[in-house]
Specification:
By secondary structure, the protein is mainly alpha-helical. The chain has one domain. The chain has seven helices and no strands. Helix 2 runs antiparallel to helix 6, helix 4 packs parallel to helix 5 and helix 6 packs antiparallel against helix 7. The protein is flat. The N and C termini lie far apart (about 75 Å).
């Protein structure tokens, strides 16, 4: 019985080593990131404007945004089991907002990529024939993001 297992293991190893593999090389077409050449086409600029609105959920759809706006008001305050996220943003003097303790980096991390996308749209939109209204829409987007914090 052991002799059969050894033969089958040797046969399996030889089959794996000698069987032909895939010869084709995968051609990469990035779809989840924007590279600078993408904005040099009308489709790219339109996609960038659409992504500006799609990424709003990463800013306004998370608790850190609401924590920044609501903590320390009459509606919210920290409680017994609150951590530094609540106490720092409460602004009652219990905590202090520092780079190591607050999570404002989450908001800026989400907003920075949108500001970068807006810059790509503004630089290339007039060259590909996008209307002035859409360029103005992209131009106002970084200001909207910065003033909403």
């Amino acid at each position: 019985m052991k002799h059969i297992q050894i033969k089958s293991a040797i046969f399996s190893a030889l089959f794996i080593l000698l069987s032909p593999g895939c010869k084709k090389i995968l051609e990469e077409q990035p779809r989840s990131i924007y590279e600078p050449g993408f904005f040099k086409t009308e489709k790219g600029v339109q996609g960038g404007i659409t992504s500006q609105y799609a990424h709003l959920r990463f800013i306004f759809g998370q608790p850190y945004y609401y924590s920044t706006l609501e903590n320390g008001t009459d509606e919210y305050t920290y409680a017994q089991s609150a951590d530094a996220n609540f106490k720092d943003m409460d602004l009652t003097g219990v905590g202090s907002i520092t780079p190591s303790s607050s999570r404002s980096d989450v908001l800026w991390g989400a907003a920075f990529s949108n500001i970068n996308t807006a810059s790509g749209i503004i630089e290339n939109a007039s060259e590909v024939g996008i209307s002035a209204a859409l360029i103005a829409e992209a131009s106002g987007f970084p200001c909207f993001l910065i003033t909403s914090f």
